Amino acid sequence: MAAALPALVLGAGLLVAAWRWLRSAALPGRGGSMRGKTVIITGANSGLGRAAAAELLRMRARVIMGCRDRARAERAAREIRAEVGERADGAGELVVRELDLASLRSVRAFCHRVLQEESRLDVLINNAGIFQCPYMKTEDGFEMQFGVNHLGHFLLTNLLLGLLKNSAPSRIVVVSSKLYKYGEINFEDLNSEISYNKSFCYSRSKLANILFARELARRLEGTGVTVNSLHPGIVRTNLGRHVNIPLLAKPLFNLVSWAFFKTPLEGAQTSIYLASSPDVEGVSGKYFGDCKEEELLPKAMDDLVARKLWDISEVMVGLLK
């Protein structure tokens, strides 16, 4: 039995490797050319955002990387340019802009610069996020996960709506998570002043993303601007940097994540699809996974909660006094 163990391990490894190869080979094809289109991606220096930026650059889009750490973003941009290659015809461009979603001041400064410098905006991908961090607050005093994942993107999107409308047909893509299922919108404690559970608060912020996307889609009917949300699946990124894994369990976790978690490129496919595919032209207010529409739980389709969340968010970010 002991002699057969190495062969079993090798065989299992080969099967997993073959399965991963088949999964990557089955990635959906890219949408049409994005030449002449401008795309903003938040959190584009790593993970899903970086993968989406590289693919959309390959499709000849002008990609604006909205990132908190400018040095890391510039390094990522250089790496992406090296991977994709410069085009002789000048089509496709990467631009780095500083954007800290934990600071409403930074969000306003970013949008002010975009509105000054950009003549159009065809796609906004609200991708950046923070996952299950210890209790901390944003610059403006909001619980960090709700502040970054929902409120920062809420203000960003609203400030760029005029440009998106003027560029119609245009698209807004909101990256949520399957974990929205475990969240609840507690209007009595949106800022987690009474109690804080990092897992619950992440799920609540992702439920807020979906409710925001649905309410925004309703408000934008007839404007030519579509809004859709998505879940990327379980992806190997640095999003889980705040999750503590016991030292002895890390080798097993790393093996399992390599075998069964999606790569950033695989996880970014639905974002890329919603940003570029002609298949979803005019589709709005829907929720996608693996480039297909999926059903939502009733709590994610509660229009009354979505409208109340919108109204309160407007006040929290200073759009209404």
Automatic annotation (TrEMBL):
Is Oxidoreductase a UniProt keyword of this protein? yes
User: GO terms for molecular function, please?
Assistant: oxidoreductase activity
Name of the protein in question:
Retinol dehydrogenase 14
Q: Which InterPro entries match?
A: NAD(P)-bd_dom_sf, SDR_fam
Keyword field contains Oxidoreductase = yes
Q: Which Pfam families match?
A: adh_short
Q: Which residues form a coiled coil?
A: none
Write out the entry's keywords from A to Z: Oxidoreductase
Q: Which family does it belong to?
A: Belongs to the short-chain dehydrogenases/reductases (SDR) family.
